[in-house]
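This section describes the prediction task in plain terms. A model, or a person checking by hand, is given the sequence of a single protein chain and must write out its three-dimensional structure as a string of tokens. No templates, partner chains or ligands are provided. The sample shown here is typical of the held-out split.
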Amino acid sequence: MDSTITRQDEAVLPSVRTPLPGPKSGAHLDAWNRVFYGPMTAHDSVPMMLSSKSRWLLEDADGNTWADHVSGWGMTPLGSQPPDVFEAVQRAMERYGLEITDYVPNLPALALAQRLIEIAPPGITRVAPGISGTEVVEQSVKLAREATGRPMIMTFLGQYHGESTYLTAALGTDLAEVTSNNAQYVSGVVYTPYPNRFRAPFHRGPGPFDDTLYVDFIEDWIAVHQVEPEQLAAILIEPVAGEGGVLIPSAAFWERLFAFARANGIKVILDEVQTGIGRCGTMFASELWGLEPNLVLLAKGFAGGGLPIAAILGTDAVMAHSETLGSGTFAWVPPACAGALANIDAILRDGILDHVQELARIAEDRLTPLIDRIEQVGDVRVAGALMGIEFVESKTTIRPAPAFQTAVHEEALRRGVLGITQHGKWVYRLQPPLNMPTQLFEWSCDRVAEAIEAVAANPPRESPVRT
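The expected answer:
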């Protein structure tokens, strides 16, 4: 069949020609619902059946196409078929096949570990293999507890750290409904609000607020009334809270938080599963503020669109003499290592980080003016190629507007843009491939702006909320 997205040139723009889902997608989705389990049978957010994917565009069974602002939830940072990564994976597969790296040392794993240490934040000297973000979060908690001999972990409300039983219950708190009916509410974890300069829990009305007040809360309340600092093994935090709405802390916040950690012998674990390997315009988001964490977590974009892979990076003090086992049978198989290394090299060689800065500039230019034009646009936040638009009922109340957000997503779909929406959330996210052509990204931002204007002309009724 002649596909509308076989060409790779920038002039190929998306086109949605049928109602959603189209007739062919609808039939496929009916068949899908007969074989998959409950959570995978709701298709309101993505009402189509993917037929093919080419670099920055997706095509469904009916020939409709969309600009890809999901990037496989971040795991395809260089588009869906990165040639260098695919070639490296294939060569390593032919040479090594699959091998258990934590039992049989191999050259691709060594080369990747050495490269990671070369580019890592200051003080990082060790690497532990992993397969997924969930697993390296779990393992990092064990490492911090082992290194300190302390039991407690401090983390932040509004973050997301994986899908395991323990940490979904304890730390996957981007929304309460994520853990509804299955949360364990386990001991060993204390929570504090993630810094949000637009919407602070301690004040009424819109910000901006000085987000050092979140560290005041830790020092004056959490560390006084809930847990002694000497009980804390680690602070687990995302440099930018992606699932929480692309929240970007200030340099002053980071200075205060790290000072608190150093003064009390607490390790800092930076979860860079979503922000690492170029997503925020630097190889690690920590570089934006010059942070020196004790542990860094990588997954998603680390794979570069190749095979699944994750990693924990850490200091000698935490990792050199550890006896805590993690890893696993499929962790760092040679082809995955080869692909991840090719991904890093391509990002650094091909000017991808500069291109991410250009995408960020375009997003600022095209989307930020909506704050002044549209009553329901409360804030626009851009961290490299990670963008969030926060919707509110009004700028006076700043009550969240999840129905408005959902309607914007649906309008954007009809215009050829597939972004990230989730039920109950009021921040719409764009997460394009780091190398998306500027023409396509500008076109996408304009379509999203059109969608917002269309919904604002007849805004949906929001469900009653507690005031």
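For orientation: Confidence is low (pLDDT under 50) at residues 1-9, 168-172.
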